[in-house]
Amino acid sequence: MTHFPDDILALARGIITDFTAKGWMVATAESCTGGLIVGALTEIPGSSAVVDRGFVTYTNTAKMEMLGVQEQTLVQFGAVSKETALQMVHGALFRSRADFAVAVTGVAGPGGGSAEKPVGLVHLAAKARSGALIHHEMRYGDIGRDKVRLATLKTALEMLITLGE
What we know:
alpha/beta, 5-stranded mixed β-sheet, about 45% helix, CinA family protein, CinA_C, CinA-like_C
């Protein structure tokens, strides 16, 4: 069993309960969180009614092969960009049976940041099959790898809740 903070488990529990009642399914596309989002969701009993699949696409090659992210997007904007997050969420939604998908790509640290893309920069996208779309650019700062990843996880779950309202 993974130990997620209570606030994150409460969000995940709410998604599983609400989406189960509505017959909705979710897919995730994760880079900097490395599967934490799908992990938090599957921590909740009954999650198999809601979680269709999770894509962990840590490398650019994985993003292209598994989610259909265009090489030109990665070259022009980089892996940590709004454009990449949007292509990731689109790919997760349309390469699954999910009604909703969420995607995250960022720089969790401690290294890997730059002036243009500092540690703590994360792009998140959530999309409904109906077409509703949310994008957030979060700048958590250099608060430590674990804190960046947990903050990203929390934001991603909140975005799914918002889309499901």
